[in-house]
Model the fold of this input.
Amino acid sequence: MRPASFSPRWWVTDREGRVSLVLLPNPALAVWILSVVVGWTSLLDSHDAEALTWLGTGALVVWSLDEVVRGSSPARRVLGVVVLLVELVRVFG
Done:
């Protein structure tokens, strides 16, 4: 019996065989992106900028947990784990 062949496409497809790398809308990711963009403007005082940074971090953690639990492809679930670990190290490390 021959072993099943590995297909790289498996990593990026959902259960129905569609390529699934970017899915819209994604509210948590949009909040994180918006917080980063607003943070770049330097229009906020230090207290508000810190609150915005924490809001963005929280949104990114929510997004990563959602991907770990409900990611539509293995690549998205792995990305969720990686982002979650990076954020946890950044916050608690």
Q: What stands out?
A: The chain has a mean pLDDT of 89. The chain has three helices and no strands. The first helix runs from residue 27 to 40.
